[in-house]
Amino acid sequence: MKNNKNIAISVKNLGLSYRDIKKFSIRKTLFSREKSTLYTALKDISFEIPKGQIVGICGKNGSGKSTLLRALAGIFSADKGTIDLHNNTISLLSIGVGFQKKLTGHDNIYLSGMLLGFSKEQIDQKYQEIVDFSELGDFINKPVASYSSGMYSKLAFSITAILETDIILIDEVLSVGDVAFKEKSYNKMKELISDENRTVLIVSHSSKTLIDLCDRVIWIHDGLVKEDGSPTEVVEHYENFIKNQL
Amino acid sequence: MKKFFSDIKKYFKYIIASTKAELNSEVANSYLGWLWWLLNPLFFMLIYWFISVIVFRTKQDYFAAFVFIGISIWDFFNHVVNVSPKLIANNKDIVSKVYVPKYILLIQKICVNFFKMLISLLLVAIMMALYNVNISLRILNFIPIIFVLVIVTFAVASLLLHFGVFVEDLVNITNVLLRLVFYLSGIFYMVSTRIPAPYNRYLLWCNPIAYFIQSSRDCLLYNKAIDYRILFVWLIIGTIVSIIGIKTITKYENSYVKVIK
Q1: CB spacing of B98 vs A119 below 8 angstroms
Q2: Confidence check on the interface: ipTM exceeds 0.85, yes or no
């Protein structure tokens, strides 16, 4: 795929399973012999994404989409295979991004920003923009625990959308907030995507989103790449597949 | 280990900022705010004073400051060790959304509690002034004691952090053990005089907290020399266990998220 310099993400033979490391209590280990379970989420996934491409990922529930995003974000370690991000910064945007509930929105903006690898000065610059975009107003100085679920997701979306990392991973987030905010975040998404240097991965169940926004769609089924190609084709095949299963 | 130090450098600002934020939120969410950091040990001191002086008729010089030093050190150790088994689960929201080296979370907790310890030590200083305690240069011995205390606390907590992810009811065990250590640490009595002869020495050798508390009192209040050999041994043990803890966490931290769901 093109020349090597422009590759943002390369994934080779990625495999990931939830091994027998389930939580156990001392009582359970002493008094019962449950069989260990091995659940393979990703079997063997390889793809390369060039810089600036918008890639949609589809697949039915439990096919390993979210696991894939988390592995890319460095939250899960791969059991086999490699992920190379070529030194790009990456952030995972999903419903209810990590906040500390006791802290205020203000503190959480700074802390999340810092965890994403931004300096305090960089966050200072963008702070007002984040608050404005999130439409939280005075709530920004209240503990996040007092937020409604809509406000929570709005803030989460605003932070990742405005503190721009090189690669953005989006996990079904376009259905955040009320109708107006949905519209606004959809437009913001488009704006982010229009930046040629930004690589975006979107996990979505909405065919509209996939066809409208993406340059390419990867269909993941049972931990394998089932199809990889232009959005209209892949989405059509995917929809037919789902219909046949009903 | 290289990763550990570069991570500390990288996340240094995060640690500071989140420590501040956590302290602030504690202040903002209660009516008396930061006064609790003073009132808490103060009330405990009154309780211990009642039990020891009124009920058991103990005689102890500078009793208020004496107990206060014990409480300050104990509270630090107790709080850090107490939260560590549940630390990853409590920070589930962060841990499952962004990569952060897990010992950074622990260091942040240590900073929060260290700050609180400093505040109650400030009270100790005030009491020492009120009691007119004779102060000599021996007071400087307190600095290495606190240093080793932090290392030992980190060592214990880092192991608990790791195993706490996998063992659900580890908290119950640590609670019982902490209670035991509490009574064996001489927080409201003097280990060397109140416990009969050979056992008091064994206790001071084997229980680092008892040793830290006793030597802090010796150097701050009673102008006595401290036993540097024991301090040195605990420094070595603490460092080795910390390294083991850090290595274990680094090796397994990316599996933690798979477990806490």
Answers
A1: no
A2: no
